[in-house]
Design brief:
This protein has about 325 residues and is of the alpha/beta class. The protein has a domain of about 160 residues: Uracil-DNA glycosylase-like domain (Uracil-DNA Glycosylase, subunit E), CATH 3.40.470. The chain has a seven-stranded mixed beta sheet. The longest helix is centred in the N-terminal third of the chain and has 37 residues. It is elongated, with a radius of gyration of 57 Å. The N and C termini lie far apart (about 180 Å).
Length: about 325
């Protein structure tokens, strides 16, 4: 018979190994989880907290920081005391006394002394006297001459200024073709690089045919092509009255209504200017016709331009 209090080997062998296996499984699982957590922190660039004991170096560092904090107020007080001492030394300096030379106070203020010198110079300025005073008659003559020159200048400016192209000179006792640049029109409609434009060239050669019954390019060199301006912008510009007086043109062909109004000082329409032959104050005959830009834009007016040239050729033929 078997004893009921005794356990079999099979029961003992089965129970104990089961407990040891369960503990081993828990330890392995914990190590796996811990390894995973450390890898996760390392991947994020973080470091886990480590608990350590306080060492002597830590105690010394804390004591040094405490001493440095206690010393800062004392250093600041020392700097403030030094600043107060410097200020007191500056205030204690004595100002040098003002010196006197021959019972006159020497003023060290430069601005005040300069003002005194200027006042003294103003009071002691010498008087200017004329050795040769101008008599009343001479003064009257001078004023009269100035007034005459001023009136003459105004008259010339009222009639504009005549400008020749570069390298050109006035041909005396010759025909003058005068044109004013009209606003909104190309500048080369009258002159192109110092030479007459195609429209003006054909117009001038037609005048030569009426005068000489022939056409030669050399005739263009005998014509004075002048631009009319309101102001003298260069040395080549001369007032209209001076040019007419000095060079005495035989006749003038005026291109455009505005040119005729400026050179004559009058205000007329082109249809009025084309009615007859006119004369300048210097008794120079002139005929007015269309502006070259108008001729270029409207070729139908060439018939009227030709009639104006016939009128001018008749005048030149009589004066020739």
């Amino acid at each position: 018979m078997s004893n009921p209090k005794l356990k079999s080997n099979s029961e003992i062998n089965v129970t104990k190994p089961v407990e040891n296996k369960s503990a081993q499984v828990d330890a392995d699982e914990y190590n796996s989880i811990e390894a995973t957590r450390l890898d996760y922190l390392s991947a994020l660039g973080l470091q886990q907290w480590v608990v350590r004991t306080i060492e002597e170096d830590d105690i010394q560092d804390a004591a040094f920081e405490c001493d440095d904090t206690l010393q800062q107020p004392s250093q600041q007080k020392a700097v403030e005391a030094e600043t107060v001492q410097v200020t007191q030394n500056i205030e204690a300096q004595e100002v040098p006394p003002i010196k006197k030379v021959n019972d006159q106070v020497i003023d060290t203020n430069l601005s005040t002394s300069k003002q005194k010198v200027d006042d003294k110079a103003a009071h002691s300025s010498p008087r200017v006297t004329l050795q040769n005073p101008i008599s009343e008659n001479q003064a009257t003559d001078i004023k009269a001459s100035e007034g005459a020159s001023t009136n003459s200048q105004k008259t010339h400016q009222g009639r504009g200024f005549l400008v020749l192209p570069n390298g050109k000179r006035w041909n005396p006792n010759s025909i003058a073709v005068v044109c004013r640049h009209k606003e909104g029109q190309p500048a080369e409609s009258f002159l192109l690089r110092g030479n007459p434009s195609k429209t003006v060239k054909n117009l001038t050669l037609a005048l030569q045919f009426l005068l000489e019954h022939e056409v030669t390019p050399a005739f263009l060199n005998r014509i004075n092509f002048a631009q009319l301006a309101t102001t003298a912008l260069s040395d080549r510009a001369s007032s209209t009255g001076e040019v007419i007086t000095q060079h005495e043109p035989r006749a003038m062909l005026i291109l455009g209504e505005e040119t005729a109004n400026l050179i004559s000082g009058e205000n007329r329409r082109l249809s009025e200017w084309q009615l007859k032959v006119w004369h300048t104050p210097e008794q120079v005959p002139f005929v007015v016709t269309y502006h070259p830009h108008d001729i270029f834009r409207n070729p139908a007016i060439k018939r009227q331009v030709y009639q104006d040239l016939i009128r001018l050729s008749d005048v030149i033929g009589k004066t020739h």
